[in-house]
Specification:
112 residues, three-stranded antiparallel sheet, globular, 26% helix, 2 helices, 3 strands, alpha+beta
Length: 112
């Protein structure tokens, strides 16, 4: 894929220093999802019993990850949040659902 050559006019000049969040561990990686040499994957592992909520698109043509979030958010609890950038995963059909299920399995195994 191409290299990013321009910065969005909406990008902040500096990033705020965020405090640690009790009960949540974060990790990021350069997974090469779309571009090389760019942090494009974030995983947050939360303590058991963490209460969660989400704001998701109302689109009838949303992606497989959104469908999974809709299903799981009804329980109001989560242990792992996986976020990627550079890939919307939309309009992928059954292959998208399989990719989401694979991601869930690996994330769950990695977090124990």
């Amino acid at each position: 894929m191409g290299k990013i050559t321009t910065v969005s006019p909406f990008a902040p000049q500096t990033l705020a220093k965020l405090p640690a969040i009790d009960g949540v561990r974060f990790a990021t990686a350069e997974a090469g999802i779309r571009y090389q040499n760019r942090t494009d994957l974030m995983v947050a592992v939360m303590e058991p019993g963490t209460v969660v909520a989400g704001a998701l698109t109302q689109s009838k043509t949303c992606s497989a990850p959104v469908l999974l979030c809709r299903e799981n958010l009804t329980h109001g609890k989560a242990r792992i949040l996986v976020v990627n950038s550079g890939n919307a995963n939309a309009f992928t059909g059954m292959k998208g659902r399989e990719a989401v299920n694979t991601t869930v399995a690996f994330a769950a195994a990695g977090a124990g």
